[in-house]
């Protein structure tokens, strides 16, 4: 039995791990193994895009354990903040939240109640309501404009008006596990590249873009297979095959991240700062989460989202470097403080959870016998695509393939 897997991201690798003892598995990868979770290595390795995990990430934590990396897993309360007009306000403890000057006491109380209630709500009912309308009706214009709008723009770029209210409710409900001092996040000390390296061991990976053809059976790059598991972004699947497979189109967003090695930090101790305006929507200070000594310099991400056709995603790296440097200077980090800066981008970095998205979630089986799809648009990746969701999707699609092929 021969199975082709397209894409060596976390979905493809976990499907390969689950299937390798039952079939001859070949994984095709056109770029870096690890996909969106791959790393950039210099004296140390660091994810191209910021990554952390959560206590409830069962599939990811199980994979870490199975591959002997549990001793590397560390948990820490990561401090968060909100930058308004270039000034950063910490927003972790009830005291810090009460002291925050850009929101009335009433609005803070409304927000707290909304967070508590979201845990018990059936979010599916809000799938046809836009996030903007939902927030306006439930929380009012002021919270929408002053609090949610900058966060939505930072998360979805110009596509935010299309996002469903169901997404927000689901997202708040899975993320309202805060302790008194903030939310505890996990990280694999010295980097998630260690997980990718262990996952890829004993897996045959062809460093080539896969070209899938369907005739009597399935052919990938000229080689015949009994089944194909496609884990790459849907828009990159051949249109004829996509249509015949009955796969619904999903809109994606792109990510652009400036990764910086710096001589000084931006905030005193905050890991994640949302930013109200400017070219980046968040500052993520990795060395306020992991020890500075592991890197010997401050490691900072400036994160932006764009549409795949947006100017930000398509701008030249030199132009972006200049723009990010200019904007981060507002926070006191000047060019002389910066050792190096790299721009990373991903064209299809996650689905836009638009209105009606719940009906668009991609099933593992397609209308074409022998073609399976898993990845960021699979069920375990709602309401947030994640390493955990992709590992789960990879394992679940493997079970479906095993059942169909009776292996
Ligand atoms: C900015 C950012 C921050 C994130 N932060 C977190 C976080 O903190 N915590 C968390 O849990 N998750 C985070 N994620 C999400 C996480 O990285 C992804 O959900 C997960 O890695 C996706 O894995 P995947 O295998 O489903 O998809 P991908 O990683 O996209 O893998 C698909 C692979 O297919 C390859 N491919 C495409 N076309 C072809 C072809 N024709 N032939 C061969 N190969 C092909 C691609 O190169 C890619 O390697 C973040 C993502 C981004 C972009």
UniProtKB/TrEMBL annotation:
<dbReference type="Pfam" id="PF01593">
    <property type="entry name" value="Amino_oxidase"/>
</dbReference>
<dbReference type="InterPro" id="IPR050464">
    <property type="entry name" value="Zeta_carotene_desat/Oxidored"/>
</dbReference>
<feature type="domain" description="Amine oxidase">
    <location>
        <begin position="10"/>
        <end position="401"/>
    </location>
</feature>
<dbReference type="InterPro" id="IPR036188">
    <property type="entry name" value="FAD/NAD-bd_sf"/>
</dbReference>
<protein>
    <submittedName>
        <fullName>Amine oxidase</fullName>
    </submittedName>
</protein>
<dbReference type="InterPro" id="IPR002937">
    <property type="entry name" value="Amino_oxidase"/>
</dbReference>
<dbReference type="GO" id="GO:0016491">
    <property type="term" value="F:oxidoreductase activity"/>
</dbReference>
């Amino acid at each position: 039995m021969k199975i082709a897997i397209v894409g060596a991201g976390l979905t493809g690798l976990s499907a390969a791990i689950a299937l390798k003892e039952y079939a001859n598995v070949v994984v095709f990868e056109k770029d870096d193994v690890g996909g969106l979770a791959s790393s950039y290595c210099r004296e140390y390795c660091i994810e191209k895009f910021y990554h952390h995990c959560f206590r409830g990430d069962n599939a990811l934590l199980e994979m870490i354990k199975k591959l002997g990396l549990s001793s590397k897993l560390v948990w820490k309360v990561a401090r968060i903040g909100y930058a308004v007009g270039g000034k950063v306000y910490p927003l972790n403890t009830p005291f810090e939240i009460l002291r925050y000057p850009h929101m009335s006491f009433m609005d803070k109380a409304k927000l707290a109640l909304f967070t508590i209630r979201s845990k018990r709500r059936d979010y599916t009912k809000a799938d046809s309501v836009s996030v903007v309308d939902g927030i306006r009706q439930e929380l009012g214009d002021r919270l929408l404009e002053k609090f949610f709008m900058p966060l939505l723009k930072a998360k979805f770029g110009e596509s935010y008006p299309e996002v469903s209210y169901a997404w927000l409710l689901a997202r708040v409900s899975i993320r309202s596990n805060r302790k008194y001092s903030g939310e505890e996040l996990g990280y694999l000390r010295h980097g998630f590249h260690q997980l990718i390296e262990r996952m890829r061991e004993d897996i045959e990976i062809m460093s080539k873009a896969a070209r899938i053809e369907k005739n009597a059976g399935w052919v990938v790059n000229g080689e015949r297979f009994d089944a194909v598991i496609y884990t790459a972004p849907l828009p990159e699947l051949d249109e004829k095959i996509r249509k015949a497979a009955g796969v619904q189109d999903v809109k994606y967003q792109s990510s652009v991240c400036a990764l910086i090695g710096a001589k000084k930090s931006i905030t005193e101790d905050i890991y994640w700062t949302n930013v109200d305006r400017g070219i980046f929507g968040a500052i993520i200070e990795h060395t306020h989460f992991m020890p500075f000594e592991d890197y010997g310099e401050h490691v900072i991400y400036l994160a932006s989202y764009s549409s795949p056709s947006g100017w930000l995603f398509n701008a030249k790296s030199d132009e972006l470097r200049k723009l990010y440097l200019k904007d981060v200077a507002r926070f006191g980090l000047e060019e002389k403080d910066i050792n190096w800066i790299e721009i990373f981008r991903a064209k299809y970095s996650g689905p836009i959870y638009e209105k009606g998205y719940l009906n668009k979630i991609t099933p593992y089986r397609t209308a074409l016998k022998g073609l399976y799809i898993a990845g960021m648009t699979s069920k375990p990746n709602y309401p947030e695509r994640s390493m955990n969701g992709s590992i789960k999707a990879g394992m679940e699609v493997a079970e479906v393939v095993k059942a169909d092929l009776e292996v």
